[in-house]
Every structure is written in structure tokens, then in C-alpha cells.
């Protein structure tokens, strides 16, 4: 495909913004610092421009986890921070699995993925697999974020192992984590995926607007020794 054809195709596509807005009082993991957006300069006191200072945790809002986020030094080859991840890692074919029928705290089973593939086609090497739990409907600003932060559904270890066997590039969810709260305290899948450089995308939104297959694009900030980064994730459909 030549450049003109590529640009024309992109311009004709519908762009779905899959990112939550970064704003104060938004949901965040309890152990992570909050997001702050503070006025730095403005016209009112005679300044020449308007600007703000942003204080952001690497895992605020819609973001990606780098392998180093959950891996110690036991596997040096896998111990990669976000600036060591190839820029194109999160550009590729996206697939969306509709999991809105799950209950609170439930897990996506590997059989769920088998059935999805039987109906919609095989998940392929390099795919970015997004699980649509419908959980972004609970996103809200404090004090209206308690539901989002409690007992969300997630992905089972067996399902994660199957996705590893398919050599996917990333796994994304519209929840705080692909690990439900109980899994985070027992056997989280974060290390399993990240050790194989299958990146984890969290706090997505508008997944219900996506078809089965689409073009996914997201770029993390180039943070030296970063354990992750906020992203602007979009789908072209």
C-alpha cells in the first residue's frame, strides 16, 4: 500500500476514542498517587499565555503496564521499562470480545475465548485483545467512583495462558485491572503476561462501540525507567 492510499484510508475511517479523560478525582488504584492539574500561568494576572502543571502517576487513567511493573530482576531479559518497548508495539489489529454478560468478580474462561473464535474468527499473532466487560459505565469522579473500584470482573489464568500461546501483543480491559481484586491477592496474571512482553492496557472505555476487528493505535510516553505510561488509545473502524 502506498502512502497516499494509507492516508486516504485513515481519513475515511471512523475514530473511536478509547481513553478516559485525565482529570482530578477520577478513579485510581488505591496504592497509586492521584492526578493533579494545577494552574501555572494565565492571562488574568498579566501573563502572556495560559498553562498548567500536570502531576500524573504512570498508571493513572487509560494506561499501559510495562514488564518492569510486575517483574523483579529474576529474568533480566524480560525486565523492560516503557521506553524500551518498541513504539509500534501497540499499533496493530485489535479484536474485541464482548464479555458484558459476566457478573461481578467473575473470570473470563478459556472456553469463552474458544467459543468467541468459533463465531468470529481466530485470534492471531500480534493481535491486541480487548475485553469489553461494560465496566466503564461505572467510571465516575469521587465520590461517584466507588462502584468502579470494587469487585470488577477479569481474565482467568487459563485464558491468559491461551493468549500467550497465540503470541498476542497486548491485552486490554475496561476495568482497573485484568486481575479481579481476589486474584491480585492470590495469583495475578500480570507477571505471566508481562514476562512475555504481552503488555497490559487498563481503564479503556467505549469498547461497546467497536466491531469484532479494527485497527488499534496507542502510544505511551517515552519515560526513562518507566513502569508504565498513560496512553491515548484509539480504534479506527
Briefly say what this structure is:
The protein has 237 residues and is of the alpha/beta class. Helices cover 16% and strands 22% of the residues.
Describe, in plain words, how this protein is organized in 3D.
The protein has a single domain, classed as Putative cyclase (Glucose Oxidase, domain 1). 16% of the residues lie in helices and 22% in strands. The protein has five helices and 13 strands. The chain has helices at 3-12, 110-120, 157-165, 181-184, 190-194; strands spanning 15-17, 36-41, 51-55, 63-65, 91-98, 107-108, 128-132, 154-155, 170-173, 199-202, 213-217, 228-230, 234-236. A nine-stranded mixed sheet has the order 1-13-11-5-7-9-10-4-12. The chain has a two-stranded antiparallel ribbon with strand order 2-3. Strands 6-8 form a two-stranded parallel ribbon. The longest helix has 11 residues, at 110-120.
Give me the secondary-structure topology:
Blueprint: H1 3-12, E1 15-17, E2 36-41, E3 51-55, E4 63-65, E5 91-98, E6 107-108, H2 110-120, E7 128-132, E8 154-155, H3 157-165, E9 170-173, H4 181-184, H5 190-194, E10 199-202, E11 213-217, E12 228-230, E13 234-236
Helix pairs in contact: 2-3
